[in-house]
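Appendix B, record 7
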Amino acid sequence: MSSLGNLAASRRQVLRGAVGFGLLASTASLLSACNTAQGGGSAAPTPTVTDPNDPRNKKFSMIDSFYTLDNDYFQGWAKGSAAAAATFLMSRDQQVDNSNVDTLKSIFEAAKTKSIQGISTLPNTAAASPEIIGIAQRSGIYVSSNWSNAAWSTPFDIGQYYYSYQAGNDVAGAREIAKVLFKEMGGSGKFIHIEGIQGNTASDNRTAGVDLALKEYPNIQMVARQPGGFSRGGTQPVIESLLTANPDVKGIMCQNDDSAIAAVNAVESRGMKDVKIVGIDAIGEFLDAIKRGSALATWAHHGAFIGAFSTVRVFDALAGVKLSPAERMMYFGGFIVDTADAADAYQKLMYSDKPLPFNYEKMSRALHPQDWDPQNLMAPIDIEKYWEKLPKPSGYRIPAEYAAAKASGELEKTASTYKSAFKSDPWKDVRSKCKSGGQDII
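Structure tokens (predicted):
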């Protein structure tokens, strides 16, 4: 990505070479050196731990597994995870599955033979999550999973080693970014919707959010809805064909920014001046497009944050922190970046070669049991609302632990606790530059 500069470009080149061989473990030390810098481009010193009871002394081992290193969101994820792991003195085996379920399954199957103790991941196909996380459950390996999860399958259904699940509120986020687009279109006109991967929780929920926005804007005419695979390569031929068929389109929404870059490129190459484009993820290239006026807005939900936070969850699980039922499935906050100034500020904060703006130790309940700070707004997921449009499996019952927590008001109490704990806001300056005020969508 152009905004990362020469350091990031050379790091990405090394990492892509590693992807070609299917394994990235050999680059973990490189990532740690690059991504835990505390100033400029210099590597962070290894934390000095003097307390013999500090759980970092156990030097836990983990795998960090995700889709790709070919876009900024997951480069940010890797950067956040690597920095957090270094802070906790954890060995981190980085793996990329290229959105292949069989590859992810093999990663989980090999974890036990590598003496791995925890895994941070996001299954690209929701339906596969019980089988894949079940491998870790049987092996006694803690899992912090993100973004995609089989409907009506919760950590309670898998077992204690499925420690936590985190996601952005995709329905609400997609609804709000679509409404920004529809409002800019003047409330009418032709609209193209590019989905992600059908069967992926994030993609399916974002589609549901777009449908809600369409109900609020009845004069918006959706002329096409097709999947783009969450990638510019998958989206490029799709959007080219759709623009040929619909030369008078006024708005395009893509379910991630990598796909949206393909839309920007297609529109610019055709000299179409009045097409408004929105995306999701706030990757650097799309922020560049917002800055030059070629794109309208994006929903920023902070890949670097969730890469770090998921790693913190793994560490806390291994350090013995017990989550309440309401904490085991949670939303994290994100906001709409909708001005050039906000795009520039977010880009400088999240995609430079400087350290990320997080205090990883403070994220940890194991290290800071009394003054922990998630550094983002978080709230429990109500699973009955999360999957309300999907039929329950025959004979399925809501897990007793979750049902009791909901009945007792624990979800609301947990949301209040996390809101109070959120004291340090890394994005305060960026929010002030957003038209919407940068209010979290959660």
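Remarks on this record: Residues 5-20 form the longest helix (16 residues). Residues 1-44 have pLDDT under 50 and may be disordered.
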